[in-house]
Amino acid sequence: MAIKSTIFKANLQIADIDHGYYADHALTLARHPSETDERMMVRLAALAISAHQLNDLCHGDGTLAFGAGLSDPDDPDASLTDFTGRKRVWIEVGQPEDKPLTKACSKADSVIVYCFNHAAEIWWKGIETKLSRLEKLQVWRIPTEASQELSRLAERSMQLQATVQEGALTLSSNLGSVHIEAVRWK
């Protein structure tokens, strides 16, 4: 019998000072049995960093949600979908292959990858030339130390505050806070 995903609930208060976006989001994250707390929390951080686009691209009339992630490789880790069902932003975390990213670029207006583990530099050196032609793609590097610290904030029921200021994210809860300064590679 297959092991089922573990469900996590997060109440996320976002204060994106850079973009003038302030909102509360009640989120449900399904953590696949093979997914780590670190990866799940990077998905949540990526969603917080991109949340302002709900107003910027969809004028508040869209859905910001987590996808099936590891359960379905054709589904984004997180996305912003407008009221017509069009994918405006497709978010992936980790070190995806070039073919799924090319496919994602054909399905969405914008694709953002957040790579985060110790092997990210090796992944990027091997795939950079293959991804250089994808105009819709952005690649961001979350420092390994910061992504590892995020796992400390993982709880089945989370109350989180996300502050985006000067391009950096600070994610806080009663368990502490993590400051993330992502570096844009593409």
UniProtKB/TrEMBL annotation:
InterPro entries reported for this sequence: Restrct_endonuc-II-like, YaeQ, YaeQ_sf
Gene3D superfamilies: Restriction endonuclease-like alpha-beta roll domain
Pfam families named among the record's database cross-references: YaeQ (PF07152)
PANTHER family named among the record's database cross-references: SUCROSE PHOSPHORYLASE
Protein name: Uncharacterized protein YaeQ
Organism expressing this protein natively: Simplicispira metamorpha
